[in-house]
Amino acid sequence: MGGSNNVNSVFYAETYHPIQAGSIDGTDILPHDNAVYRALLCSNASLYDPLGDPKLIGDPYHTIFVSRLSHLTTEHTLHKAMSKYGRVKNLRLVRHIVTGASRGYAFVEFETEREMRRAYKDAHHSFIDDSEVIVDYNRQQLMPGWIPRRLGGGLGGKKESGQLRFGGRERPFRAPLRQIPYEDLKTLGIRPPPEGRYMSRFQVPSPPRKRRSSVEKEEYSHKRSSVDREEFSQRSSSIERDGHKRTAGGRQESSSKRNSVEEEHHHRKSSTDRSESSQKRTPIEREDHRHKCSFVDREELSHSRSTAEGGEISRKRTSKDKEERSSKRHRHHGRSNR
Q: Which Gene3D superfamilies match (predicted)?
């Protein structure tokens, strides 16, 4: 198996096994140091209860694990730094039971799982008090078979410590370049590497999601159905309003068209009636009608002529009066000169 294509490929542990965590490629079948052997004994004898810590509070799916903190970092500083990613509900900075000094790691709980995932993605390798921190999900409660570092387990670590553990976010397993002992891994209960499903170093592993119970699923489906019903009712009401507006507009348009058609019909009918009435007249009635029309025309013509003559006469009178006045003024002017 192996090959050059797997050189830069990695994978992450979904369950914890001490022997596998001590292997760089996740294929070891024997413990290679005393710490791994101690963690294996604790795991086989069930000497560690991950849920037995009385200080554990809050929802593990909303909680992140922050390590490599400065020993000068306080709860206030950490709270301020984590508030950038969401609403912090609870925070516990782990301190020494005797001295009270910071142990360099903490658990931060957020209000929602979405905010926790945002901090999980963005706060990793950020700096708090000039110290580059490591962020991971709450493996103590969410990773099956978890053994803490104080018992020889854990993940990550520095080379100087001589206790490197692989499979986590900081130090993932490398894709194996040697033959995988499937039978031995199956005997030890170790999950083999996911051939063909490796990830690159730049991909961010997703933390486990919270599984909904049957009651929560029913509540969620009920809420979803109620929301869908509300959306459907809103859509139907809007469609009805639009249809009503369109119907009203169509009615107005149809009524206006009907009125125009009726008026046109009435006009045509009246003209038709007039033409028919004119056609139905007898010759005597037609002659009387022409006689009346000619008589009316003659009266209108005589009236217009009389009006025109009266206007001409009035103009002549006006001009004659003007001439008489001017002659009188000339005579009066001549007498005064004498």
A: 3.30.70.330
For residue range 158-189, list pLDDT tens digits in order.
Answer: 877 778 999 999 999 999 988 999 999 999 89
Domains and CATH numbers, the chain: 4-200 (3.30.70.330)
Dihedral over Cα of 284, 290, 291, 296: its sign = positive
Q: Could you tell me the pTM of the whole model?
A: 0.61
Long-range CB contacts (within 8 A, 24+) of 74-80 = 77/128, 77/129, 78/106, 78/108, 78/128
Whole-angstrom distance, CA of residue 104 vs CA of residue 129: 12
Answer with the residue of higher pLDDT: 317 or 129.
129
Count of other CB atoms within 10 angstroms of residue 228: 10
134: closest CA among 172, 83, 95, 170? 170
The angle subtended at Cα 113 by Cα 107 and Cα 118, nearest 5°, is 80
Q: What residue type is 311 in one-letter code?
A: G
Averaged pLDDT for residues 257-265: 65
* Cα(163)–Cα(131) distance, integer angstroms: 21
CB atoms within 10 A of CB 257: 10
Find out whether 109 and 119 touch, Cβ atoms under 8 Å.
Answer: no
CA distance 66 to 135: 5
CA angle at 185 for the pair 147 and 5, rounded to the nearest 5°: 100
CA distance 258 to 264: 10
Using CA atoms, how far apart are residues 43 and 144, in angstroms rounded to an integer?
11
d(CA 210, CA 181): 33
Task: With cut-offs at 50, 70 and 90, classify the pLDDT of residue 210.
Answer: confident
Pair 155, 139: CB distance under 8 Å: yes
Residue with tokens 């009203």: 248
Inform me whether the pLDDT recorded for 322 exceeds 80.
no
Q: What are 270-302's pLDDT values in tens digits?
A: 655 555 555 545 555 556 656 655 555 566 656
Q: What would you report as the CA-atom Rg of the chain, rounded to the nearest whole angstrom?
A: 53
User: For residue 65, what are its two tokens?
Assistant: 């694990």
Q: If you average pLDDT over residues 199-220, what whole number do you get?
A: 77
